[in-house]
Design goal:
The complex is a heterodimer.
Chain A: E1 6-9, H1 17-25, E2 31-34, H2 38-46, E3 57-60, E4 63-66, H3 68-78, H4 86-108, H5 117-143, H6 155-170, H7 179-189, H8 192-197, H9 210-221
Parallel strand pairs in A: 1-2
Antiparallel strand pairs in A: 1-3, 3-4
Helix pairs in contact in A: 1-3, 1-6, 4-5, 4-6, 5-7, 6-7
Chain B: E1 6-9, H1 17-25, E2 31-34, H2 38-46, E3 57-60, E4 63-66, H3 68-78, H4 86-108, H5 114-143, H6 155-170, H7 179-189, H8 192-197, H9 210-220
Parallel strand pairs in B: 1-2
Antiparallel strand pairs in B: 1-3, 3-4
Helix pairs in contact in B: 1-3, 1-6, 4-5, 4-6, 5-7, 6-7
The chains are: A alpha+beta, B alpha+beta.
Chain lengths: 222, 225
């Protein structure tokens, strides 16, 4: 029996990317099986392995886990990235949920009609710089520690770094007003497991281009 | 200092209702502050109590908690409704997340334009009866236990009964193909704290009506884009 988790999704970042980030940051090697056609998804559905007929699906520890948040929570808990007690977990959850709302906007962006893209992009940047980044800037500034919660690397830090880098792809200077986040980004990017994930050849996926978008549309929406 | 959690939201179900269910099921009394005007909302933002400028807000154990899932996870963990280990928690999380996707459709329904309501209702019925309810029917049938996970009352059971009742309000015969869920609904409705919550006069909120929709739109008016 393989000890490695196995991820089922398209080659897109989509809803699986946060899971790739978390496993990689935890130093866990994983395998991936890619959905390339609608038939691939139908086959998975027919085989009964998708609890709600949806991906992401991650085979891990004898379970066929679905639902992104459930998967992320399990991995975070298993690899000690979820704080030391219920209260730290509460703070991690709050920070993660905020980041997820921002990442959700970024994730659906490639699917938006062309004539709304400019407006949606402006909203992403506005939300990032007025709703989300200020919160984490303040948290880091107020306690002066390296990590968001409990002076220890957690799921919240990994997720925030993912969101920072994704937002920077839209606007490279988006952190210009956030010195604590700039330092955070520098520090966290240099954590060995994360540094490795950020190098070419890792399982980190690129932004969705037109070719991949066509595949994704065919798999999920045709 | 009051020991009771304090909930800030509209006087209606929305995103706060699962929190009311969970606290009530855990036997925890709570206070509520209702948002009625956009000025109230803007004051909350100005006072810096809303981490991401959003409600729900739950003041509990010295924290001003936001983000529904974070709030629910905390309450479930605190009151032993989250399973006995990480694997049970994983199952509860999967079940809750699936049900939440169904509840999201119900949440958005009152805000959909009149011409789309018929289609949306069909979609709710379709997803409930072909994607979600069959999963829980099968889980209960296979292990033959009273509750979804670990033979013990958990957040998953509370979330499921909330969803069943919400869908039944729209589609009364929706459980007709699901005998296990019918029995589950009766059993869980009779858990003393749930039974109390289902009685008139409890903090349970009625189905959203036009007044609720108008209040929400009015409060968010200046911030909607």
């Amino acid at each position: 029996m393989s000890a490695k988790p196995k991820l089922h999704y398209t080659r897109e970042r989509g809803r699986m990317e946060s899971i790739r980030w978390l496993l990689a940051a935890a130093g866990v090697e994983f395998e991936e099986e890619y959905l390339e056609t609608k038939e691939d998804l139908e086959k998975l559905r027919k085989s009964g392995v998708l609890m709600f007929q949806q991906v992401p699906m991650v085979e891990i520890d004898g379970m066929k886990m679905v639902q992104t948040r459930a998967i992320l929570s399990y991995i975070a808990g298993k690899y000690n990235l979820y704080g030391k007690d219920l209260k730290e977990r509460a703070w991690i959850d709050m920070y993660v949920e905020g980041v997820m709302d921002l990442l959700e906007m970024i994730m659906v962006f490639p699917l938006q009609p062309a004539d709304t893209k400019e407006k949606k992009l402006a909203l992403i940047i506005e939300r990032a710089t007025t709703r989300y980044f200020p919160v984490y800037e303040k948290v880091l500034k107020d306690h002066g520690q390296d990590y968001l919660v409990g002076n220890k690397l957690s799921f919240a830090d990994i997720h925030l770094l993912e969101a920072i880098l994704a937002t920077e792809e839209f606007k490279p200077d988006v952190l210009s007003a956030f010195p604590a986040l700039q330092a955070f980004k520098g520090r966290t990017s240099n954590i060995p497991t994360i540094k490795k994930f950020l190098q070419p050849g890792s399982q980190k996926k690129p932004p969705t281009d037109d070719e991949l978008l066509a595949i994704v549309m065919n798999v999920f929406y045709s | 200092m009051s020991g009771k959690p304090r909930l800030t939201y509209f006087n209606g179900r929305g995103r706060m209702e699962p929190v009311r269910w969970l606290l009530a099921a855990a036997g925890v009394e709570f206070e509520e502050v209702f948002l009625e005007t956009s000025e109230q909302y803007e004051k909350l933002i100005k006072d810096g109590v809303l981490m991401f400028q959003q409600v729900p807000l739950v003041e509990i154990d010295g924290m001003k908690m936001v983000q529904t899932r974070a709030i629910l996870s905390y309450i479930a963990g605190k009151y032993n409704l989250y399973g006995k280990d990480w694997k049970e928690r994983a199952l509860i999380d999967m079940y809750v997340e699936g049900i939440t996707d169904l509840m999201q459709m119900i949440l958005m329904f009152p805000f959909s334009p009149p011409e789309e309501k018929g289609k949306n209702l069909d979609s709710i019925k379709d997803k409930a009866t072909t994607r979600y309810f069959p999963v829980f029917e099968k889980v209960l049938k296979q292990h033959g236990q009273d509750f979804l996970v670990g033979n013990k009352f958990s957040w998953a059971d509370i979330q499921l009964i909330e969803a069943i009742l919400a869908v039944e309000e729209k589609i009364p015969a929706v459980l007709s193909g699901f005998p296990q869920l019918q029995a589950f609904k009766i059993r869980v409705s009779n858990v003393p704290t749930i039974k109390k919550f289902l009685q008139p006069g409890s903090p349970r909120k009625p189905p959203p009506d036009q007044h609720y929709v108008e209040t929400v739109l009015k409060v968010f008016r200046r911030l909607m884009r």
